[in-house]
Amino acid sequence: MAMLGQRRQKRPATRKRLESPGAKRDDAGSVVIERLAHDGRGVAHDRDGKILFIEQALPGEDIEVAIHTQHGRYDEGHVRRILKASEERVTPGCAHFGRCGGCDLQHLAIEGQRRYKQQVLREHLARHDIELPEPALLADEAWGYRRRARLGVRVGSDNRIHMGYRVRGQDRLFNIEQCPILEPRLETLLQPMRTLIESLEAPRRLGHIELVAGDDVVMITLRQLRRVPGDLARWQQFSREHDLLLSVLCGEGEQPVLERLDDRPDTWPHYRALADDQGTAISVRSSDFLQANAKVNYQLVASVLAWAEVRDAMPVVDLFAGVGNFSLTLAAAGARVTAYEGRESMVQRLRNNAEAAGLSEHIDARCTDLSSAPADLENAALVVLDPPRAGAQGICQALAQRGPSRVLYVSCEPATLARDVRLLVDGGYRLVRALVADMFPQTAHLESLVLLERQPT
Ligand SMILES: C[S@@+](CC[C@H](N)C(=O)[O-])C[C@H]1O[C@@H](n2cnc3c(N)ncnc32)[C@H](O)[C@@H]1O
After folding, report:
1. Residue 336, SS3 per DSSP
2. First to last CA, the chain
3. Which pLDDT belongs to residue 333?
4. Residue 158: CA atoms inside 13 Å, Cβ hemisphere, count?
5. What is the pLDDT of residues 267-291, one digit of tens each?
6. Which positions are annotated as binding S-adenosyl-L-methionine (predicted)?
7. Which candidate, 100, 123, 108, 101, places its Cα nearest to that of 58?
8. What burial class does residue 230 get, using C-beta atoms within 10 Å of its C-beta: 0-12 exposed, 13-18 middle, 19+ buried?
9. Ligand 1 in contact with 369 (CB < 6 A)?
């Protein structure tokens, strides 16, 4: 027993992978799935009351479970046999589902996926005692939406080429033959790219391939560890045949050099932030952040614009601004935007995009590390923030003390959003509107947008 004042010895983590992943644990038997966890797995209890997380199991289903990993307080397993299926169970649309680390909800009908995401947002906020009115839903096509992807390339010890994504929960790559969540313009490139890679002189020099589908053109960027002129000539031929923009990021270490290999070096992919936007499109590079789903992004940007209620010359601060996805639309509506972004290359792109749209006078783009808050938050009428998954704890602490009357928070991680909203509510804000954007159908990822207003004191 630990004595008072004595540091308790750290217990070794108890995690035991069963010898054979398919091995049935004697006492697991059949279980009824109670609900979905926030990562999309089914949750049940075994006969001894231990929690089970079960891949590809749906609420209400009676299943025979195979446990593959045991922990001290819970076990992880997969479905051995479905004894009673959910009415919402559907046949997954991709042959790689279950093995691929990309999708986790293809076995659930799309309506169920969307209800589940709204529930997840509500539950995360409830953990922080924040009540949420029924969140609205932004959604579009269930398949063929993803306009960017990174495909890894490895050559196995048997010289077989692997081109694709990571195996679920592992570092290993596996071959993909299809990826029906990819935009059709990208998916149709998969087979010809594999054939090309199989014909390369030095496929081991190719690390990965970035695909970006702009509204106008598709660009592929090769991450090449060393220049192999014969192989680059093959890729040039491929880009001509498929009407692609082509660049190569070449060299090992910190400073690889980007080079254009096609005959249109002044052309780059562009996208529009709003469906009906007739203005200048936004230019992006493979290295830039780009919202993955064009049509849901239209709706997200339109919602930000509607909830922002821009008045002429209204001062708006856009934090984590990227290449201007929100800044450009807000400025075009009349706001005076101060946009902060941490990557210099994207700040420069934002400035160029503002200039191309005739909005330079309305957008002041600054390169800043937003681990801490910029100084001028209190001068804004509205702060928009769209941080990475880690959220924006420091910024929200500052907003709680000296934030403007309204804050619009776009989030790709509901757990950190809920933590940050708690800080804002403790600082005098009230959550007044929320929506879930189904930016990544067939996966458990969810995007959300909330509006907070400062309460009069
Ligand atoms: C989720 S993206 C949003 C980009 C943009 N709002 C959009 O909709 O396209 C987050 C952005 O935050 C930037 N970022 C991440 N960490 C940052 C930091 N510590 N300081 C400043 N910017 C950061 C990334 O470069 C990225 O552009």
Report:
1. strand
2. 51
3. 96
4. 2
5. 999 999 999 887 779 999 999 999 9
6. 291, 320, 341, 386
7. 108
8. exposed
9. yes
Residue showing tokens 């993955």? 292
**Domains of the chain, each with CATH number or no CATH:** 15-89 (2.40.50.140), 113-141+273-454 (3.40.50.150), 148-213+218-260 (2.40.50.1070)
- The pLDDT of residue 366: 98
d(CA 241, ligand 1 centre) in Å: 35
- pTM of the predicted structure, to 2 decimals: 0.92
Task: Please indicate whether residue 322, judged by its CB atom, sits closer than 6 Å to ligand 1.
Answer: yes
Looking up tokens 């609420």 gives 59
Question: Which residue's CA is the closest to the ligand 1 atom numbered 23?
Answer: 342
Burial class from Cβ neighbours inside 10 Å (0-12, 13-18, 19+) for residue 271 reads buried
Q: Is residue 342 within 6 Å of ligand 1 at its C-beta?
A: yes
SS3 378: helix
pLDDT of residue 16: 59
Distance from C-alpha of 124 to C-alpha of 104, rounded to nearest angstrom? 19
| Residue 341 known to bind ligand | yes
Q: Which pLDDT tens digit goes with each residue over 346-358?
A: 999 999 999 999 9
291 lines ligand 1 (CB under 6 A): yes
100 is a catalytic site residue: no
| 320 in a labelled binding site | yes
183 is in an annotated binding site: no
How many other C-beta atoms can be found within 10 angstroms of the C-beta atom of residue 166?
Answer: 15
Cβ–ligand 1 distance for 326 under 6 Å, the answer yes
* Radius of gyration over every alpha carbon of the chain, rounded to an integer in angstroms: 24
> Do 105 and 113 contact (CB within 8 A), yes or no?
yes
Under the banding of pLDDT at 50, 70 and 90, the label for residue 15 is: low
* pLDDT at 2 exceeding the cut of 50: no
Q: What separation in angstroms does the CA of 201 have from each of 11, 157, 231, 232?
A: 51, 16, 6, 10
CA-wise closest residue to 432 among 419, 450, 444, 418: 450
* Average pLDDT, integer, range 257-270: 94
Ligand 1 centroid from CA 109, angstroms: 32
Catalytic residue among 100, 103, 396, 412, which? 412
CA–CA gap between residue 66 and residue 381 (Å, rounded): 55
Distance CA 290, CA 322 (A): 8
